[in-house]
Every structure is written in C-alpha cells, then in structure tokens.
Amino acid sequence: MVNVGEKAPNFRLLDTDLKYRELKEFLDKGKFVVLLFFPGAFTSVCTKELCTFRDRMSLLNQLDAEVIAISVDSPFSQKVFKDMNKLNFTLLSDFNREVIRLYDVVLPDLAGLGLRNVAKRAVFIISPDGVVRYKWVSDDPTVEPDYDEVSKQLEALKKEFGK
Fold first, then answer.
1. How many C-beta neighbours within 10 Å does residue 117 have?
2. Residue 163 forms part of a structural domain
3. What string of DSSP letters covers 108-145?
4. H or E element, residue 68
5. Hey, how many other C-beta atoms are within 10 angstroms of the C-beta on 26?
C-alpha cells in the first residue's frame, strides 16, 4: 500500500509505442506527476475521465504537472484508445498487474462482470522528490475523481515547492 508522505515505488511499464517507461524518468523532469489508474479503455466512465484530463492539460501544464494513466489493458488496445480520444499524455500498460498490486489499487471484479483484477479508479500526485503528496482511490468504478481538487492540490504543491 502506498500512502501520502511515502516514497512512490518506481515501476517499469510499456507505453503505447511499446517503449518501456519508468516513473523515475518522469520525476527526473522536475515536474509533479499525476498518476491515474483506470479500470479499462473504451468504457464510458474511463473515457470521460481521461478526456476530462486531456481537456485540462493546459492548466495541468501551468501547474508543472505531467499526467500518466495506467490500466491493465494491452499497449495495443491503449494505443487505439489514445488515438481515438486524442489523449495528450502517456498511457502505460500494466498487463501483468504488478503496479496495481504495488499501489494497492486492485479491483477484484469489475461491476460483477467477471473481469478480474483490473485497476481501481485512483489518482496519486507525486512531487519531483518522489513522495506521494495526494491520494484518492475509489472502490466504485463509476465514481470519477474531483478534478478541481486535483488542480487545487497541484496549486498548493506548486507554491510549497516554490515553482
């Protein structure tokens, strides 16, 4: 389990271009990382959530944030999902379900459909020093994060870090 105030565990996952990416690589840019976990590409709530983050990217960029979204979908389906929705941030595939276990965001069964061990909907904000500064996790996959709260947290962190 990863909690606020703790170091965020590093991970290495494939992106939609089949390139391995690590959390450390994003933190080394000196930005805040908004790490999103979502249950599945092409689902209505996930599409709405990721498109909402897409539409807020200019604000998030002003707040020195970079968005990374993780699901257990294959990088191939994520690529189609990303292209169809013109997502302007990195999607990573946790097809082996290692990172969702590491961050303790495993949803055992999606909506009683028998879709086992997908990601819960979750948001972690990680500061450039690798520490988790904000955490929101929902056991209900139909509940979206409070987008304004994410922005408020980033604004406060930007001031705290003197950026």
1. 13
2. no
3. EEETTTTEEEEEPEEEEEE-TTSBEEEEEEESSTTPPP
4. strand 65-71
5. 19
For 106, 109, 128, the CA distances from 66, given in Å and listed in that order, are 23, 29, 11
Q: Would 4 be classed as within a structural domain?
A: no
The residues, ordered by sequence, that sit 6+ positions from 129 with a Cβ below 8 Å of its Cβ are: 27
Q: Which residues are catalytic?
A: 46
CATH of the domain at 84: 3.40.30.10
Sequence-separated (6 or more) residues with CB below 8 Å from residue 88: 54, 57
Q: Could you tell me if 99 and 70 are in contact, meaning their C-beta atoms sit under 8 angstroms apart?
A: yes
Number of domains making up the chain? 1
The domain in which residue 101 lies consists of: 12-158
Q: Provide the whole-model pTM.
A: 0.93
Print pLDDT tens along the chain (163 aa).
Answer: 899 999 999 999 999 999 999 999 999 999 999 999 999 888 889 999 999 999 999 999 999 999 999 999 999 999 999 999 999 999 999 999 999 999 999 887 766 666 668 899 999 999 999 999 999 999 888 899 999 999 999 999 999 987 6
In a domain, 1, yes or no: no
- Whole-angstrom distance, CA of residue 139 vs CA of residue 152: 23
